[in-house]
Amino acid sequence: MSDSPPKPPQKLSRDLVESIECCSAEELRAVERYADALTQYRERETRLTEENQDEVEDRPKELPDDVPTRATLTTKEINGNRYYYWQWRDGEKVRSRYKGPVSGDDEETG
């Protein structure tokens, strides 16, 4: 450890450096803990934003905004008619959202 005070990084504003230099050792430890926690939070937010951006780019165009990407398309028969529904699990529940009727062309292809 050096006998002279450390030089501040050039990336820090002069106001911030002056504020920090006036702190006691105890306050500096608190700033250190806060800065570490804030760094972890910001890195997590950045990672989640990037992951969400990837999900948006991979999202099928026909998938409604309020239906998660992991939803699957299922068919249900109601009163002799067949309909498409988006389905996904939300905790213990299975959620569904109506897409539309199965057309004759859809039934032939599968």
Give an overview in words.
This protein is α+β, with helices and mostly antiparallel strands and 110 residues long. The protein has two domains: 14-58; 72-109. Helix content is 44%, strand content 24%. The chain has helices spanning 14-21, 25-58, 104-109, and strands at 72-78, 81-90, 93-101. It has a three-stranded antiparallel beta sheet with strand order 1-2-3, with no helix packed on it. It is rod-shaped and about 85 Å long. The termini are far apart. This is DUF6788 domain-containing protein. It comes from Halarchaeum rubridurum. Residues 44-67 are annotated as: Disordered.
The residue ranges in which pLDDT falls below 50 over 5 or more consecutive positions are none
Largest beta sheet: strand ordering: 1-2-3
Helix content: 40-55%
Order of helices and strands: HHEEEH
Can you count the beta strands? Answer: 3
